[in-house]
Amino acid sequence: MRALMQERQLLISSLIEHAATYHPDTEIVSRTCEGTTVRSSYREIRSRAKQLAKALVAMGVKPGDRVGTLAWNTHRHMELYFAVSGIGAVLHTVNPRLFPEQIEYIVNHAEDKVLFFDITFAGLIGKLRPHLGTVERFVAMTDSAHLPAEAGDCAAYEDVIGAQDDQLDWPQFPETEASSLCYTSGTTGNPKGVLYSHRSTLLHSFTACSTDGLKLSSRDSVLLAVPLFHVNAWGIPYASAMCGAKVVLPGPWLDGKSLFELAAEENCNFSLGVPTVWLGFLKYIEETPGLDLSRIKLERVVIGGSAAPRAIIEKLHHLLGAETLHAWGMSETSPLGTIGNLLPKHRDLPIEEQITIRAKQGRAIYGVELRITNEDGQPLAHDGETSGDLKVRGPWVTAGYFKGEGGEVLDEDGWFATGDVACIDREGYIRLTDRSKDVIKSGGEWISSIDLENAAVAHPAVQEAAVIGLPHPKWQERPLLLVIRKPQAEPEKQEILDFLSDRVAKWWLPDDVVFVDELPHTATGKLQKNKLREQFRDFTFNT
Ligand code: ADP
Question: Does the residue 76 lie in any domain?
């Protein structure tokens, strides 16, 4: 029997309508590429998003057309979030940290019709534009006074929206229509596009706002240290509008000092970012004498994208009194897959034990089903010890890639294989032990490169660590530990190994330690282990 409830569609435009109606004066604070700070509000964001929407329609943008952005976290980028999806077009946020050839590939693959860019990328646009055949209009996200010459012929954002009024009723259409497009970082082959819907975005937002989710609410002042081009800034622009949270946008400045000052000035109590961002933030705190830490009011910090080292979780707690919500996810999961909240029974545990739980990759949330399987696809026990291939399914998990790249990605029961190896405990906490391609297979057993890296970065002289498996004549593969030392620290190889021997099984101990000056990262801050394996291909262990 069909139900008798309204079938009002879950559309992104309804988020900004709600925010502007019921939280009109809540601030959106933005550091701009011109070096200014703009204080806007949900009322203004809606008004300008409507002007922009009309401008897009006037440019000939139709429902389903892709509109690209190459931009930092600013109010203008947030306006694009609502304007583009609001008219049924698809917001395609391109990661500007990718190599120019990848950007060219992605924009062409997505067939972007209009490309909005920050003035910091004017030179890049100038070089790329002859190769971006589908792009009909280029818009610099600035005013006419700051129009960059290097980008070639383009319009100024402020002129584009200034030509329109804000009288617009958002169109209604099915919630299953596409709203935004993000390409995965492409550590395997070409980047592939994940195409989100209005429905998946809104359901994901409800989770961000839920108490056992990210607890986002109108009480929050959010320092958005995760870029708007990184999986829709983990869905926060939408979720913030849903609950009326204040949003603070750092522009291109994600270094420790800039984030510290912005968090202090805007009373931010909630923030999100990849581990590298927090490493920089904490490094600034530790290396700057006389900082008044009481200016930082952070209560909750979401860390995801790569494993949050225990040391970061400890420091956020001990230095700032902030709780870490360790989250796991991927572009294909919108990205929230698990979230590291504690259960009531954990509240009275000693803080070190609580941190052990927080260092896991978070816990199952409603909306994302989790399972682990063996190599034959058979489900494995959720006992916290058995590890296997992590699979997910749910209404904000991808069903396939844009234009069918990569073929069929779901198994016959609808599960998506994440490429991660994890264990799941009875309470639904997951612990990632590796990516399937990074796991070290030694003597028929698996060594977790992530566990070894976490153990190594706990050493006070270690700034960053990476572990890769290299071929070994007897054991098939053995771990090699690569370490970046902290400035002025001079640890010996043996000292690091002794330190590790108290923390990991003896047969896990790396066969060698190499000190390096830098480690390669992807555009989203992940270690590029494929590059490291290539770099150390000819390395031989002395054993
Ligand atoms: P992005 O586009 O965010 O770089 P990808 O989809 O390429 O994302 O990467 C997702 C992968 O990042 C996951 O499959 C997992 O390997 C890794 N990852 C995400 N969150 C965590 C985490 N909290 N701990 C460890 N690894 C993580």
Answer: yes
Residues 113 and 13 in one domain: yes
Query: Which backbone phi and psi does 310 adopt, to 5 degrees?
Result: -55, -40
333 annotated active-site: no
* Structural domains in the chain (count): 3
Q: What is the number of the ligand 1 atom nearest to the C-alpha of 419?
A: 14
How many angstroms does the Cα of residue 201 sit away from the middle of ligand 1? 19
Q: 212: part of which helix (H) or strand (E)? A: none
pTM, two decimals, is: 0.90
How many angstroms does the Cα of residue 86 sit away from the middle of ligand 1? 29
Mean pLDDT for 469-475 is 89
410 with 449, same domain: the answer is no
93 in any annotated domain: yes
Please write the tens of the pLDDT for every residue from 222-235. 999 999 999 999 99
Residues 69 and 186 occupy one common structural domain: yes
Helix axes 275-287, 256-265, angle to 10 degrees: 80
192 alpha carbon – ligand 1 mean position (Å)? 15
470 with 431, same domain?
no
**Containing structural domain, residue 518:** 440-535
Query: CATH code at 376?
Result: 2.30.38.10
* Catalytic hit among 136, 446, 486, 493: 446
| Same domain assignment for residues 465 and 515 | yes
Query: 380 with 502, same domain?
Result: no
8 Å CB contact between 533 and 195: no
Same domain, 528 and 460: yes
**To the nearest 5 percent, what fractions of the chain are helix, strand and coil?**
35, 25, 40
Q: Is 441 a catalytic residue?
A: yes
Q: Is 184 a catalytic residue?
A: yes
The verdict on the CB of residue 361 being under 6 Å from ligand 1 is yes
Asked, as a colleague might, if the bond just before 350 is cis with ω within 30 of 0, I would say no
d(CA 176, CA 399): 13
State mean pLDDT over 170-195: 90
Cβ of 158 less than 6 Å from ligand 1: no
Is the predicted pLDDT of residue 187 greater than 60, yes or no? no
Distance from the CA of 166 to the center of ligand 1, in angstroms?
Answer: 39
Q: What is the pLDDT of residue 398?
A: 98
* 338 in contact with ligand 1, CB cutoff 6 A: no
CA distance 170 to 174: 13
Name the residue with the closest Cα to ligand 1, atom 27: 306
